[in-house]
Amino acid sequence: EVQLVESGGGLVQPGGSLRLSCAVSGFTFGNSEFSWGRQAPGKGLEWVSGITSDRREYYAQSMKGRITISRDNAKNTVYLQMNSLRPEDTAVYYCISGILGSPGYLEHRGQGTLVTVSS
Questions:
Q1: What pairs with residue 57 in β-bridges?
Q2: Nearest CA-CA partner of 40 in 73, 63, 7, 74
Q3: Which end of the chain, N or C, is less packed with Cβ atoms under 10 Å?
Q4: Residues 22-55: pLDDT tens digits?
């Protein structure tokens, strides 16, 4: 059974940082690509970052320079380090299978973790 389980969300002040984690099972993790997406209240899903099996990283312009995606193949986990957070970054963040534009993108998605940026 494929599972993507996110954690690490919460309430943070503007300018703060969070690191999201995605524990993956049911994949041949080392050969797989993953993305992070987010959905703000009342809006659609927005892709924010992706990482390939050979660790190439891709970022959406909206968060580029403030986020870093990484993976730990020994732990079957994908991370998203987010810095300099803004109120407009408030959203549910999802771990997603695949890379935007590639086959398999969004075939699987986790339940999401809520990030709230507010003072």
A1: 51
A2: 63
A3: N
A4: 999 998 999 999 999 999 999 999 999 999 999 9
Answer yes or no: are the C-beta atoms of 4 and 97 closer than 8 Å.
Answer: yes
- Alpha-carbon span 38 to 25, nearest angstrom: 21
Tokens 């099996």 belong to which residue? 53
- Which pLDDT score, from 0 to 100, does residue 43 have? 97
CA angle 102, 89, 100 (to 5 degrees): 0
Instruction: Give the CA angle between residues 14, 10, 58 to the nearest 5°.
Output: 75
Close Cβ partners of 1 (under 8 Å, ≥ 6 residues apart): 25, 26
